[in-house]
Amino acid sequence: MNTPPLRSREWFDTPELYGWTRRAAMLGMGMETSNFEGRPIVGICNSWSELTHCNAHLRSLAEAVKQGVWQAGGVPLEFPVMSLGEFNMRPTTMLFRNLMSMEVEESILANPLDGVVLLGGCDKTTPALLMGAASADVPAILVTGGPQLSAHWRGETLGSCTDCRRYHVELRAGNITENDWLELQGGMIRSPGHCMTIGTASTMATLGEALGMSPPGNGAIPAADSRRSQLATTAGRLIMNCIEQDLRPSKVMTLPAFENAIRTLHALGGSTNAIVHLIAIAGRLGLELPLSWFDELSRSTPLLLNLKPSGEFLMEDFCYAGGGPALLKELSPLLHCDCPTVTGKTLGENIAAARNDNPQVIYPFDSPLAPDGGLVALTGSLAPGGAIIKRSAASAELMHHRGRAVVFEDHQDLLARIDDPDLDVVAEDILVMKNAGPLGGPGMPEWGLLPIPKKILAQGVRDMLRISDARISGTAFGTVVVHITPETAAGGPLAAVQTGDQIELDVSQRRLDLLVEPQVIADRLREAPAAPQVPSRGYRRLYAEHVLQADRGCDFDFLVK
Ligand code: FES
Question: How many C-beta neighbours within 10 Å does residue 408 have?
Fold first, then answer.
């Protein structure tokens, strides 16, 4: 194999002043001359931040990566990129995913880096890293921070934040006290790491393995487990091999690799957000993933993983059952096992020795939890561009449901009226929220899990059909249709829905329909309020002028290859 010339040489071998000053700067950091004379420079792109609790341990993980880079003869240089903390950022991290991806891309391209190890964890940090690395197309490996340890409270094993939401419903229903709620708060997040249900962070970390961008085991090893550091050190060695083989993201994340990732997403019963993120990552490489393909693969991919929010267990259990490699091995009859990966081996070689040690957690391929996948793409007169429902986390009796719409014009309207005792609503109604999409939110916040009105909760009802152009957290459960496209603010039919209209959801037929005459819908849309004003300056103006709809990954039009 012909090893390509090192990118970093363009910086350090430059004659005269510039090369001299760059070498002087390396000496100034205490490096010896030998460190930058012919050795590959490996960037460690770190989304560490104390504002992102899920990523707050990534500085120590970076040290583990450095060990591996040094061992393999490279020179590691750690650098920060913005971090997107799900709990702290307003109005939503999704507003800033593309910004972070741009920072990742430009930080890689502007610096003397021959390869990069990407450190992420919290929901949006992982896709932003992969999007930026795909655009930069310099050899890269994804290492995530790992899930938190399982939570325990009063003898019950709990998951963040599936059970935060469940107990919040019970608090609203008056079944637990404020003191109970406070006590629970102290025990929910027991360790470093990201949410330990199969939410967006765990889903994307495991999809890193399926895509071939992460070392085997990346998804499930807990953050607090010593094997997480070992994996990071391994990644530090592996990136050197990727540099030598010129194994770039575009050579790893091919269309067959994305097919593997989509099938894995369905087998996981993973997060709805992963659909948007996979479309965006693929778009950076010039690959299109239509929603119809997600649906087609869903029909022929069994649901294998029994994790909250759809199932019973947590990421720690997934790890002990064999983690990503065991799940991928179960799924291997449907996978392209010849895809290359960052280990230098094929996906099939990576999982050859994997074993499923707990078929209650990872169901066998020939006796799955469900014969088809957890996520379903819908279309119909209410969602001509598509919508998503997580069937595995929904109520079976609502999979075909026709009911009366109770409409909230936006999130503020929802918060103001949902618990109004005079709200005209019954359990069979369909709660509809508008103006929460990529433009309307803005940023498509995770508001899609509309709260059940208190007066309905008091009747013992815990689920209703809820519909919006928002997203939902990967840790959420319930019968919730999200990502309605086009969104309200883009003039989609959702803008035309009025309280009292009939809506029909038929998951078996993949349909979501507004049962109103097309001419009436058209008339109402002509009279609908104008789209929100484009902000006058800054990043939010850039966002409003260029963000694409959910079926195109909510990326910026000018970033798609
Ligand atoms: Fe970071 Fe859940 S808050 S992954």
Answer: 22
